[in-house]
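Appendix B, record 7
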Amino acid sequence: MTSAYSINIDENVAMDIEQLSSDGFLPLTSFLDYENLDSVLKTMRLKNGEIWPIPILFPKPAKEVHRGDELTLKFKNQIFAKLTITDSFSYDLLKISKFFFGTTNTDHPGVSKLKNSSTEFITGKLKKLKKLSSILNVESYSPTDSKKIIKKRNWKKIVGFHTRNPPHRAHEFLHKCSLENSDGLFIHPVIGSKKSGDFSSSAIMHSYKKYITHYLPKSNVILNPLLTYSRYAGPKEAVFTALIRKNYGCTHFIVGRDHTGVKNFYGKYDSQKIFKKLPDISLEILTYDEPYYCKKCSQITTSKTCPHGSKYYVEISGTIIRNSILNKSKLSEIYMRPEVIKYLKMKKNVFVK
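Structure tokens (predicted):
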């Protein structure tokens, strides 16, 4: 005998459902079952062999539920989706942490969050009933929307850029290098939940609007907030973010230094190296050495094009930028464009508490 229940879900689960239901997480269209979770953690592939690097899981609710039950999923007091349960299972959280994050150290924000999660999960057939963007009151293009815009602009070579920070001069270097050899740049900031101390979604989106207005050709840029959240999973999240951009219509994807990393848990270029294991990803990965300001060249450059020694290098340091914003101190334009830094210094609640 099947039953119907109504449960409340948090924003992270709602964002996963949004992407699963709109083809943002292809080849996934629902939450992982046991066999696929086990395969993903051990091989970065689903059991059918398709690339998928991260666990997308639905924690089993506190209520007693069974296969065949239909769950009505509410978010912010609104009916958002339905899930008809096809399977329930348990999995060791330490194994998930070890395979996914590469560590069980609770200093890692992903591990710390996961350790308090349920060890039991469910999956099933999803049916989304409302757009998440309308509930959150944000304008965000779906994969279908994005592809329509790209087609209308007649772009053939589209470079995707993932970020969880406001734009600084090293980002600008990557953007402009990529635009030189492409039709368009698809800037896709993550606006879901982040760890304490990260830049707020509002600060990121508004600073990008300032930056694009003053420093990029608008006709060659799409700015679209991505309805998902940061996992801080380093290399495996780099693959995840690449697959998402392919689903949104990108043909190329930028992977820079320490992409989606946190603290010192991953090597500086590990997120670039992982793609060598995935030749069938069907998206061209654009890798760059770390950009820096060279006092001799008087510009942002990299070791590939700058012959001068490290004594001339100035690192585009996120810590220096952050401290300048916190202390309202002067920041050189070698780090960030003045329009962006002015906005961030004037705005309240720039950082996640």
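Remarks on this record: The chain has twelve helices and 13 strands. The domain at 4-136 is CATH 3.10.400.10 (Sulfate adenylyltransferase).
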